[in-house]
Amino acid sequence: MSLTSIALQGKEWQIAKDTETNQPNAELILRFIVFFFWFTFANRERRYFLSSVCNFT
Question: Which domain of life, per UniProt (predicted)?
Fold first, then answer.
């Protein structure tokens, strides 16, 4: 895990905190979870995904 991803996770968690109630904002946390899974999938499978797309075109 790189330093940028760690910093991004910390920033996202701070943004996801509701300032008035100090409770997690469900929508932002959901977006972060979706982004996190997409980001890890893209990092791991980018080469295979791009090669399959190039083969189909």
Answer: Eukaryota
